[in-house]
Protein: Plasmid pRiA4b Orf3-like domain-containing protein
Organism: Xylocopilactobacillus apicola
Amino acid sequence: MANHYVYRFNSKLVGCKPKIWRNFRVDGDKPLDQLAYVIMALYEMDEGHLFNFEDRTDGELISYEMSPGTRVDLCSDATRYSVFDRKIRSVINEDNPQLMFVYDFGCNWEVLIELQHCEIVDDLTQEMPQVEEGEGYGIIEDLQGVEGLMRFKQMLESADSNDYQYYCDWFEGQLPDLSNFDLAKCNSNLHDKITKLENHYRIGDY
């Protein structure tokens, strides 16, 4: 009977106050691109931008990309691999428990991922991936990264600001609640979102 590596991760959107974070479990034997789709689904990253994982430990930069070389702004001596050729547990594990996920190289959204626990089981009795807890909404696409998100948060707190009506029009009157996190809804929508992202990136329409 084959063993399965159940990984429990803590993740957070870097630079946000208050924190926007998720704790979740995945099958560590899945390819690394599957971890990317989970993160994108959990943080409202749905417009198909380029992404990579970065291992910044030990003074060396290792980049895991859709195709080695797609992250053109990295230093020339970075070591590059494909996210399709590496399993999750071969990249992030007890010896190397931390990775940075970077989405949309223009806005440069960063999600720090930390391994909390690894359990080896004979059978996967629970559906994977599974979100356990979290706080905060996620990103808003095309908002100039985390600094833009924080400015947007300040604008929401001041309805008389000059930008308030602009964003009301942009969101057609349905401004997002940046403090909102619905665990049940997150889990119920997770697999459909992952399937959509997988089809998009594996077909290569980016």
In short: Strands lie at 4-13, 21-27, 51-55, 62-65, 79-82, 98-103, 109-121, 130-135.
